[in-house]
Design brief:
- The chain has about 120 residues and is an alpha+beta fold.
- The chain contains 3 helices and 4 strands.
- Strand 2 and strand 3 form a beta hairpin.
- It is globular.
- The model has no long low-confidence stretch (mean pLDDT about 85).
Length: about 120
């Protein structure tokens, strides 16, 4: 399987449970084809760079997933057929999926100073 990223923009009038159902529907498209959705990022409602279908805003989503090449074509076909999707774009990630970092942990105030001291001692 290959790694992919697909960004799509949802019509701004789709909100709440309808929006969640739409995302679940597209997750099901990927997993139904044998793919694996690794992460879904919701960027929220944003102003579009240019009007699409006379709309100035849309809700952005990014799917990170692994799937076969034919599976992506089917996923894109389903996105194209759905009237609630304004635009989409898929990319094949040659380097694989990005490492999704855990939330940053706070370091103790002295920990940074210790690292700086160790680096200075190496020179």
């Amino acid at each position: 399987m290959r790694s992919y990223e697909t960004m799509f923009i949802v019509h701004p009038e789709v909100v709440g449970d309808e929006l969640k159902a739409l995302v679940e529907k597209f997750k099901g498209v990927v997993t139904g084809q044998g793919g694996d959705v690794v992460k879904v990022e919701e960027w929220g409602s944003r102003t579009l760079a240019y009007p699409i279908q006379k709309l100035a805003k849309g809700t952005y989503f990014i799917f990170y997933y692994q799937a076969g090449p034919g599976d992506v074509a089917e996923f894109e076909r389903r996105l194209r057929l759905d009237d609630k999707i304004l635009r989409f774009n898929s990319l094949r990630l040659e380097q694989g999926l990005p490492q999704f970092a855990a939330p940053a942990q706070e370091q103790a105030p002295g920990a940074e100073a210790e690292v700086a001291t160790e680096e200075a001692g190496e020179e």
